[in-house]
Write a structure and sequence with these properties.
Strand content of chain B: 5-15%
Structural class of chain A: alpha/beta
Organism (chain B): Cryobacterium lactosi
Largest interface: B-C, 220 and 226 residues
Shape of chain B: globular
EC number (chain B): 1.4.4.2
Helix content of chain A: 25-40%
Number of strands of chain A: 13
Enzyme class (chain B): oxidoreductase
Number of helices of chain B: 14
Protein name (chain B): Aminomethyl-transferring glycine dehydrogenase subunit GcvPA
Number of helices of chain A: 11
CATH class of the largest domain in chain B: Alpha Beta
Structural class of chain B: alpha/beta
CATH superfamily of the largest domain in chain B: Type I PLP-dependent aspartate aminotransferase-like (Major domain)
Strand content of chain A: 15-25%
Mean pLDDT of chain A: 88
Mean pLDDT of chain B: 96
Pfam family, one (chain B): GDC-P
Radius of gyration of chain A: 20 Å
Oligomer: heterotrimer
Order of helices and strands of chain B: HHEHHHEHEHEHEHEEEHEEHHEEHEEEH
Number of domains of chain A: 2
Number of domains of chain B: 2
Largest sheet of chain B: 7 strands, mixed
Radius of gyration of chain B: 26 Å
Chain lengths: 305, 466, 527
């Protein structure tokens, strides 16, 4: 798996796994990654798409950053370079421990098979992996790592938590950004699931649509969500539990979006995506929305179906 | 429109050359390049400005206009209060006017090397005068330095009230009030003023004790104070602040530091002040400039809004250069999340100041401090010998002192009007700023004032109050 | 590439830090002793200081003669490239700092004035200030300018403080706590709004390269205190919907402030007040020909506003009664002071001199030429391998600047924009500007041709970048190890930020070096 290609360009690879078939399968990826992990590599650099990213994630080598060389179109996961060249540069920076390369928790997403069965293309959030990304730094800051997005997101989360009103239900979407809100409340959270908070208490864990609607009944509620994946998904990909009906009942002005400015910038001008499966709700969400990017800072960003 | 005349500042103002450039990009007229600006945004007429002047005409026009000024060079001036007349060596003027640094911007540490080194030497020499390891590049004035320092203290302590001496320049206090924000703002910093002792001009310690508490982010005082007085209980004030968990911020005029103790030595955490007295002319107030300094503790460094410049090794062994430090925490790096804001300041005055400090050396600062003390005290005594004239705080001042005309029937304005007719700029009128001092004026005497100057003032004052 | 371009070489003086120079006892400046009468009365000056406040040990300053100091700094000035070569640093609007302006500003009728002198003695100075005010009113349509702000950011701060005063006077300050800006507006607008206590709402760009009207509408509310925005932005993109923007903000009860930092391409073409703005700012040290001084100043951010806002202006304001000029301090609604005194007079004199030398015709010409030069350069630059332009959809000609990207070059060769900046200086061209933070465009660079440099100079700039691109593709190491012709080489990454190695003063440097955090330098007595 890759040995021939590596030799062809003049590397002397250390082969950790030889697949039994010419056409490799998921298991081969997982076994290889496990072997690399055991060998103590600094980075798992893989070629492929969202499926491969999932396989790497599944091999439980969480402590080692992963980086994808994109070999397909439009990856949903946020662990890929923007181009093969870019992935190469990024890998080099990371391995050279250059301060321009930082590591963050990035979403691993893949096609949602349930949705495909319904003839829709959507994506599901499978987990988070450490992944290097390049900070776009000006010359003078090149050497310095500024206060990272981590601290900013924590501060926003603390504020969201502090401003929660009594008697109001707060639905926390999946992902690390919203997890910070639970953490500042001192509550446990489901990383990949949807939780609900009422009066400082966790009133629902890993809720599905029906569970959410039950809790929301006759009660003012807010949705707190992050931006998921490399394509900037707001609703519908990675947080399907927050269904069109949930969004409709909550109301557009009760949606709190939290994201690091760097995450928005990495979308390179592409809008935040909504794909709730309900054209009416998608239209309602389309337009511009305030994203909390700092303690006393909002950024207005475009949303599109 | 007629064909414009080529202008000496614009190499491409030759019409044929513009044609050549237009042709090369395939455009008929310059106008086509402005299509982004909609018609209804466009000014529909030519600008109505005074006629263009040739260099010769411009020179004559400006000299004619500027000669309507009367300067502190052809007159005898005793004005201070934030801008002071000191001797500026000719070599300093030559250095600060060099086109190389005037035309520089943010190049690379290699292409800006000389300028960066000069800036670093400014910080280094000021650090020696202050006995402090961290000195930022200059900020726009003493008042802005104090304002930034108070905000730093509020961030460092997480508190939102500051204690400031009332014997402060009202202009500076006004700058500080704007920095501290009005009460409507969530990040408002409250200001409590501490009175001065009517007899000595020093801080009223009773009042200070009352004002400082667990809500206090910082205590700010100045040595010498606005009224000229040298605060003698610096350590005591710092101890009171520290006991409450507050920062001690001291404002100084660094020209005094050859003879006066460095504030760090009596407990200051952050020191601010002017750099104008270090080789910068008055420029009608355009000479104003300030600094912020502290210990090198990363907690303090992290709160600087000013740009900082650090020495560094280069990629070549044994070679050193200089680069901006902690740039990312400024508003250039973090926009609204940066510390306050930064932008154009008075960095050329740092170059004047570094040259000045190097020419002065330790002996120069000692001598100038001694001279100023002698001349100012002599002037104070001579003036107080005039019937009807008193000096409010006759002991323990540096170069400024408060002259009272309360025992005369003249206002400061009247006295100054008469002095002006004699070619003398009298001291700053304090009668509205500090009404409790009555008809009083703040006089500044420096190394430039000779015995004859002081005697001339004394004579003119006798006449003015008669 | 035909012939290799000739390179430049900086003077290499290996100049020691001044902290290591001199000899004990040497003097650079003497003061004649006080006259005997004075000395007799005060023989011991230190006795005039309270004992607790006397300095105990002399400051460790260098002891040098006058020529030693003078030539040290002249050598350092020579090791500063500035515009001695060529510098077209975007957003800084590099233009000629005329020597006549310097000569006038350094006359004693300017340098030897005290700001608190009686206004009768300042008539010439006030006439120049008033003259500059009049010129800026004509350029903007505003009703009154003040010059107290010591730079553009300071003028933005002035605007934020006046915004506070305006809403406070209407009893709405507590409610109106948001200022709207755009991601492409200079960071100082967002920063000063935040420092003045406002919450900052930032609009991102849409496909056209500027934020859409819809984005603005999503941001405006009864909490809106003001809009702070530039136009064109520093990519040379002009927002054609600005009149509507201002209308919407006014309708919501907010003020509109126009940051005219990028005025060169717009001057004589439009006026802020006619687009509807309540206030604007000009940088005299940039658009009006006064020096940038290392982006350090002294500088002036001239702040102008409508009659309605004029009551809040920082005092004093220079007025004219038809006969004499006055410093008007009697302004009951003033915000007070932004900075002590009434402005950097020398900078105002230089800007006034520049404006009079240019006249209306010259100012219009400068605007035309700067936009022509930018578009001329764009054609040459886009022909270079590895160079692309930001926002390809925004295809109409840019104004006085264009934002480019070297992302392609980086992906192809590994050479990034910092490498290119360094290599440019080897040709006597000072490092080009990249972009403000955050970098929306990867590996950005932004030249601003301006009106000073001739076509030959612009051609050389393009040729240098073309050659560096060739080098990147053929011999990337040459670019990555640059500069090769400067007084020093690149700094070791990280040393100016790492707390164990950074040193902002010589005394801090000595302590850290003695702690072993730093290697021995060339000036180390032990080496």
């Amino acid at each position: 798996m890759g040995e021939t290609a590596a030799r062809a360009v003049g590397f002397t690879p250390l082969v950790v796994h030889r697949p039994e078939e010419v056409d490799t399968v998921s298991a081969d990826t997982q076994v290889s990654v496990a072997a690399m992990s055991k060998a103590g590599v600094d980075l798992i650099l893989f070629v492929g798409g969202d499926g491969t990213a999932r396989d790497v994630l599944a091999s439980k080598a969480q402590h080692i950053p992963m980086l994808g060389i994109p070999a397909g179109v439009k990856m949903h996961s946020a662990v890929f370079g923007t181009s093969p060249q870019n992935a190469g540069q990024l890998a080099a920076l990371h391995l050279a421990r250059d301060s321009a390369a930082a590591v963050r928790e990035a979403e691993v997403m893949d096609l949602d098979e349930d949705a495909i069965r319904e003839d829709r293309v959507s994506a599901r959030l499978y987990g988070y992996a450490l992944s290097p990304y390049e900070r776009r730094l000006s010359q003078n800051a090149k050497a310095g790592a500024g206060p990272g997005e981590e601290a900013t997101l924590d501060a926003i989360a603390r504020k969201v938590a502090a401003r929660m009103r009594s008697g109001v239900l707060y639905v926390l979407g999946p992902g690390t950004t919203t997890r910070r809100v639970s953490t500042s409340l001192g509550l446990p959270s489901t990383l990949l699931g949807v939780d609900a908070v009422l009066d400082g208490r966790l009133v629902g864990r890993d809720l599905d649509e029906q569970g959410l609607l039950r809790l929301m009944a006759d009660r003012e509620s807010y949705l707190v969500v992050g931006v998921l994946g490399g394509q900037g998904s707001l609703f519908g990909r990675g947080n399907q539990q927050i269904s069109a009906e949930v969004i409709r009942r909550t109301g557009r002005d009760h949606i709190i979006v939290v994201a690091a400015l760097e995450k928005l910038i990495s979308l390179d001008g592409e809008p935040l995506r909504v794909d709730t499966g309900d054209a009416e709700v998608d239209t309602m969400l389309t337009g511009h929305i305030r994203v909390r990017t700092g303690l006393e800072q909002d950024t207005v960003y475009r949303v599109q179906a | 429109m007629s064909v414009p005349t080529p202008h000496p500042y614009m190499a491409n103002s030759v019409p044929a050359l513009q044609r050549e450039m237009l042709d090369s990009i395939g455009v008929d007229s310059v106008e086509e390049l402005f299509v982004q600006i909609p018609e209804d945004h466009r000014l529909q007429r030519p600008l109505n400005l005074p006629p263009r002047l040739s260099e010769n005409e411009l020179r004559r026009h400006l000299i004619r206009t500027l000669s309507k000024n009367t300067t502190a060079e052809t007159n005898l001036s005793f004005l201070g209060a934030g801008i002071w007349q000191h001797h500026v060596p000719a070599a300093v003027d030559e250095i600060v006017r060099r086109n190389e640094w005037l035309t520089s911007v943010f190049g690379e540490p290699s292409s800006d090397h000389g300028r960066n080194q000069a800036w670093f030497e400014f910080c280094s020499q000021l650090g020696e005068l202050l006995n402090m390891d961290l000195v930022g590049l200059p900020v726009r004035s003493w008042g802005t330095a104090a304002g930034h320092a108070l905000r730093m203290a509020a961030r460092l302590t997480g508190r939102n009230e500051v204690v400031i001496v009332r014997a402060i320049d009202p202009e500076r206090l006004s700058v500080i009030r704007n920095f501290c924000e009005p009460p409507e703002m969530a990040s408002h910093i409250g200001i409590r003023l501490v009175d001065f002792d009517a007899a000595t001009g020093q801080i009223d310690m009773e009042d200070l004790h009352q004002a400082v508490g667990p809500q206090t982010a910082a205590v700010y005082f100045e040595v010498p104070s606005y009224l000229g007085v040298i605060e003698s209980r610096g350590s005591e004030i710092a101890a009171i602040a520290h006991a409450a968990g507050a920062q001690t911020i001291v404002g100084v005029d660094p020209i005094s530091l050859g003879v006066l103790s460095a504030p760090a030595d009596y407990g200051a955490d952050i020191v601010v002040g002017t750099i104008q007295t270090l080789g910068v002319r008055m420029h009608a107030g355009g000479g104003a400039g300030g600094f912020i300094a502290s210990s090198d503790d990363p907690r303090y460094a992290a709160e600087y809004p000013a740009l900082l410049i650090s020495i560094s090794e280069t990629l070549v062994a044994g070679e050193h250069g200089f680069g901006l430090s902690l740039f990312h925490q400024s508003s250039y790096g973090l926009r609204d999340k940066g510390n306050d804001w930064t932008g154009h300041s008075v960095y050329m005055w740092a170059i004047a100041a570094t040259a000045y400090m190097a020419m002065m050396g330790p002996r120069g600062f000692e001598e100038i401090g001694a001279q100023i003390l002698q001349r100012a005290h002599y002037a104070s005594q001579l003036l107080s010998e005039i019937d009807g004239v008193d000096v409010h705080f006759p002991a323990g001042f540096f170069k400024e002192f408060v002259v009272s005309f309360n025992a005369t029937d003249k206002s400061v304005a009247e006295v100054n009007r008469t002095l002006l007719d004699d070619g003398i700029f009298g001291g700053k009128d304090l009668s509205t700023e500090f009404p409790e001092l009555g008809q009083s004026a703040l006089y500044s005497v420096t190394e430039i004032h000779t015995l004859a100057d002081i005697e001339r003032l004394s004579g003119a004052l006798r006449k003015a109050i008669a | 590439m035909t012939e290799k371009l000739k390179e430049y070489h900086a003077p290499v003086w290996n100049e020691s830090s001044i902290m290591e120079l001199g000899y004990p006892g040497r003097r650079g400046l003497l003061f004649s002793e006080a006259e005997p009468n004075i000395r007799e009365r005060f023989p011991e000056p230190e006795a005039l200081i309270p004992a607790s406040m006397r300095r105990r040990s002399a400051p460790a300053l260098p002891e040098m003669t006058e020529p030693e100091v003078l030539y040290h700094y002249l050598r350092l000035s020579q090791q500063t490239l500035g515009m001695m070569g060529m510098s077209i640093f975007g957003t800084c609007t590099m233009k000629y700092n005329a020597q006549i302006n310097e000569a006038m500003a350094w006359r004693p009728e300017v340098t030897e004035l005290h700001p608190l002198q009686h206004e009768d003695t300042l008539q010439g100075a006030l006439e120049v200030v008033y003259g500059m005010d009049t010129i800026l009113r004509e350029l903007s349509g505003m009703d009154q300018f003040v010059f107290q702000a010591g730079g553009g950011a300071d003028a933005a701060y002035t605007s934020a403080v006046i915004t506070r005063a305006y809403h406070a006077a209407r009893g709405e300050l507590a409610q109106r706590d948001e200022i709207i800006t755009t991601i492409q507006t200079h960071p100082s607008s967002a920063a000063t709004a935040a420092a003045a206590g406002f919450k900052v709402i930032t609009l991102m760009l849409d496909e056209n390269g500027y934020p859409s009207l819809d984005a603005l509408k999503a941001a405006v509310s009864d909490r809106t205190a003001a809009l702070m925005v530039n136009n064109p932005d520093d990519m040379g993109v002009y927002n054609p919907e600005m009149k509507e923007w201002v209308r919407i903000v006014h309708e919501a009860g907010g003020l509109a402030f126009y940051d005219h930092a990028n005025f060169n391409g717009a001057m004589s073409k439009l006026r802020a007040r006619e687009i509807g703005f309540d206030a604007c700012m000009f940088m005299l040290h940039k658009t009006f020909g006064a020096p940038k001084s290392g982006v350090g100043g002294p500088a002036v951010g001239a702040y102008g506003c409508s009659e309605e806002l004029a009551r809040y202006l920082p005092a004093p304001v220079v007025t004219y009664d038809g006969d004499r000029y006055h410093l008007d301090y009697d302004r009951p609604h003033t915000i007070g002071k932004i900075r002590e005194f009434w402005g950097n007079l020398p900078v105002i004199v230089k800007a006034y001199a520049w404006s009079r030398s240019m006249g209306a015709e010259g100012i219009a010409q400068a605007s035309d030429i700067s936009v022509l030069a930018n578009n001329y350069m764009e054609k040459g630059l886009l022909a270079i391998r590895g160079v692309t332009r930001s926002h390809p959809n925004a295809s109409t000609p840019r104004l006085e600047m264009t934002r480019y990207s070297l992302q392609q070059l980086k992906e192809d060769t590994g050479v990034d924009v910092h490498d290119v900046q360094n290599r440019m200086t080897d040709f006597g061209i000072d490092a080009m500007w990249t972009s403000h933070e955050p970098w929306l465009v990867p590996e950005p660079f932004t030249p601003e041709a301006g009106e000073m440099y001739g076509k030959e100079a612009l051609d050389r700039w393009i040729a240098v970048l073309a050659q560096i691109s060739d080098e990147a593709y053929s011999d990337p190491g040459l670019v990555k190890t640059s500069p090769h012709n400067q007084a020093i080489h690149r700094l070791k990454a990280g040393m100016t930020d790492d707390p164990s190695s950074r040193a902002m003063t010589w005394r801090a440097f000595l302590k850290k070096r003695n702690n072993g955090a730093l290697g021995a330098g060339p000036h180390d007595p032990a080496s």
